[in-house]
Amino acid sequence: MRRAQTTFLAVLLLVGGTFPLGAQTPPGGVPSLRTGVQVVPLDKENFKRIPADAKVIRLDVTLKDMGKDAKEIEENAKPLLEWVQQGGIIWLHTDAAQLFGFRTVSSPMDLLGKAKPVVPWAAHPLTQGVREVFYRLSPVGVLVTGHPLGMMLMRVADSPTPRPQPLFVVATVEYGDGIALFAPPDFSQRRAEGLQFYNNLQRFLAGEPATDRVPGRELAKVFEQWQKVASKRNLSEVKEPLSAITAYTHLWMGRLLHRKLNKPKDALAELEKAATANNQIADVYAALSDLYTALDEKDKAALAKKRAEELAKSERAPVPDARMGAGLLLTEGELKQLVQLSDAVSGGSEDKRKELGAMLTTLIGRVWYQASFNPTHRTFDLTNAEKLFVEALRQHPTSRHALFWFGALRVTQGLEPRQPSPQRAARLQDAIRLWQEFLSARGDAQDEPKDNAFPSPDQLSAWGDGLKVEITRLSLEPPDFHHDPRSGLIVRYLRSPDTGWQEFAGNLQAAIANAANLGLRVEDPELLIFPTDAAYQQYRLLTKRSFPEFGPNAPIDVAGEVILSGPQPNQGFLTIARRNEYRKILSHFFGHVVVTAWTEGGPDIPGWLTEGIASGLSGDLNTRSILQQAVRQGLLLRWNDLQTAPLPPSDLFYAQSQEMVAFLARIGSQRGGVVRMLQLLGMGVRPEEALMEVTGMTPEQFMRAWAQATLR
Known about the structure:
- This protein has 712 residues and is α+β, with helices and mostly antiparallel strands.
- The strands form five sheets. The protein has a nine-stranded mixed beta sheet with strand order 1-2-3-10-9-8-5-6-11.
């Protein structure tokens, strides 16, 4: 089965962000990226010394390292804060993130495994093509619970402990002209989309695309003005709103040239155009005052500042919806295009008016697209974004921005697991159609500024090819759908006369509670129930995965059904269930869903661990009786006998495995023994080494300790 869908969080401010590189990066990784972007690590020995040419700094100190009290910490941190305010990027992973307004908490354990984006697919440069990554915290690492103005990018997934609020692994906030990034320094590129995320990070840090924030307040003003414009047919009636749009786009460009590109003369030309277009905007004169100050023209700076203050007192700024206060990451090319379109509209071009309207409407849709997540229910509502993208295409059917972002929204909808597979496939097919139209429209756009506003045609085509495979796979899934809101369980099946499994599929509370007792919580667990082995084999061939096969002695019944479990196609289990075994089978296979969710991307898991967890969730065996009999007969299994489940597995194998898992949970409870064991195995650590790290015992010592504690 596929991994659970990306989710996203309502935010107040969208800013640029990055994800860390750590010990698992390729040669030439941290502190120097392959792009040539230098990441300077500052520890407690050198955090006061900031290299003059530093652009990205990783702060490895804790608050305790920075001083003995709040006053000393504040004094020591001042140069660093000023450096970020002037345009630097600071990468944080300890409680020192509090200096930049992040709220942090200590990690419940030093291994947290999986992180998922909390912005929709493609809504941020770092999440394009990414659904999850795997990470590891450092000994001094913490997690973020939020930031009043920050953008949460990735959250903890499958947390071992219940939390009243989400925990975030990656977050950013704009700090002055710079960016404060929170992220752990170590993540795996070889698992899930780690490599894709790493590549996104490198392009981002290298300025590809160059990013700038359009302040939410200004953006809201532009949207308010444009709503007035869009309702008018006669351009002579909308001179003032059009002048405001033109002024704001020149203002954006002027700030970009001044603050980011260090081109004061070009910036001055843009700001003077802004003031000429509309001389009633306080922000234009505030920007002119800043620029004149930088150019050491004090008299002009003072006059501009005075004008800004006068306008600010009289200006009636719109009060936008809270979620519309989000900023946007716009590329330099997008900003240039806004300026070009605004200039053309000011000159009376009706066609350009429609094109500008479509682009601005798309920007509004992008705000809603990235700000629609309900963290309480892990759901999202893309209704507003969808309506706006549709409206943008109504205004201008070949709007490249609307076509791309509408396609991205369809992908987000298609990857959402809590809906029937045919509906998901239709949305992915629609995404491919929209992107094909986007590529066609882009090919005709000779005057479009050349930049990285969108993925390259090759990259977009590769994404489209991946969607085609996903559509084919979805077409082979059983089409009927059941989602139990109590357990979160998703079951995909084909209706048949024998539907006894439904009596239990929606009521796995006991198994879910047993998993939670081990610290194993899973989002959107799924079961696929195929009507025949042939249907399953067709699905299996498409996914090109290998699955363990059950032997000829597996229970078979004429009315049986094939059951496949696991959140990923690379881990599954095939069996034929007797009618009276549905409850046991479903509970047992939910256990395998749990195991594969925590070890995805890793090698095969020892049989005693995976079967012990699954057997414990179904809870049908009288393990004490079985083990006592095995002891009397001298048949107790040894460590080597427990690494692979026999075919068919025996009651003794299940009973001994179940009790070994329970023992592992008891002795490692304070450190999350079962969770840590699964995560280490998923990261590729050998079973014996993982056992030693979790328990401090060799297999022989573990087996002796288990026997003494269990068989008395």
